[in-house]
Amino acid sequence: MESKVSEGGLNVTLTIRLLMHGKEVGSIIGKKGETVKKMREESGARINISEGNCPERIVTITGPTDAIFKAFAMIAYKFEEDITNSMSNSTATSKPPVTLRLVVPASQCGSLIGKGGSKIKEIRESTGAQVQVAGDMLPNSTERAVTISGTPDAIIQCVKQICVVMLESPPKGATIPYRPKPASTPVIFAGGQAYTIQGQYAIPHPDQLTKLHQLAMQQTPFTPLGQTTPAFPGEKLPLHSSEEAQNLMGQSSGLDASPPASTHELTIPNDLIGCIIGRQGTKINEIRQMSGAQIKIANATEGSSERQITITGTPANISLAQYLINASFPDPELHGRTFPA
């Protein structure tokens, strides 16, 4: 089976899902949809792009394996062309690799990684592409992102090998597909300007929100440099804990102009505490890093159905930590709800 698939000769119908940012989707669609139309016609694959005003979109490619490989080749070469064009207006000397993100059922990721990472290592070495399987599932789904980067040729070979694994190890049980959320992103205020967050980037927000913020700031006579005041629209903050995020939040401004630290206490039901802590403490560490607040979770006490959380920091740190804690609950109805101490 493997040799037939890698030659693109096995007539098996497969569906591969890709996660793309808006700009990447725009490149694939092309002016008046010409690019995607050409890709469909020349590859013979069905290419569907999810609807909705989302920062991320799902591109679904379905067809016989050889049609899928042709479609992937066209996408990879289109992205390389975009990189080349962007470099002609840039001072960068080294060419960044083409990167694609596949969305794969979590139940198939074990086969893709292999025992002790043997399979993924073999794919990396034989194709020359970098392959990373995300540790956590995508929100509200049982799928994980698999990021592939390298030259277009390396990516095509890599996709072929991943298809082999997916054919040999079908998903187990039901798969809950990842659906990107609409772009009702939260707003962050910094330096009197309102920003919405997309991925790891801050996009200046329409003027009316800035005006609202300025009205709110008239209530407080002094706003220290580097302080931010988050809004609470009840949506998850789509940020990764990164230097960019911290700089955006003003936590790395290096200016010692913060107001004195204060403490705020919350009580959280025991059954929700795991959402805040995350796997091996990853979520709580991310919240600490992004908010700049100190967060302590009390040990469970016998007979109590709640745990106490103590947040210490500036008012802005505490507000952002509270917001991020509320945003980590799985039930959207709980977002924006503050649990009193």
Structure commentary:
There is one protein chain. With 341 residues, the chain is α+β, with helices and mostly antiparallel strands. It has 12 helices and 12 strands. Helix content is 38%, strand content 22%. The strands form 3 sheets. A 6-stranded antiparallel sheet has the order 2-3-1-4-6-5. It has a 3-stranded antiparallel sheet with strand order 7-8-9. Strand 11 and strand 12 form a beta hairpin. The longest helix is centred in the first third of the chain and has 23 residues, at 65-87. It is globular, with a radius of gyration of 23 Å.
Summarize the structure.
The protein is of the alpha+beta class. It has 12 helices and 12 strands.
Strand count, sense and closure of the main sheet?
6 strands, antiparallel
Mean pLDDT: 76
N→C terminal distance: 61 Å
Content-based structural category: alpha+beta
Tally the beta strands.
Answer: 12
In percent, how helical is the residue content? 25-40%
- Low-pLDDT ranges: 1-9, 212-258, 332-338
Number of helices: 12
How much of the sequence lies in strands comes to 15-25%
* Overall spatial form: globular
Topology order in helix (H) and strand (E) letters: HEHHEEHEHHEEHEEEHHEHHEEH
- Work out the radius of gyration: 23 Å
Write out the strand line-up for the largest beta sheet, numbering strands in chain order: 2-3-1-4-6-5
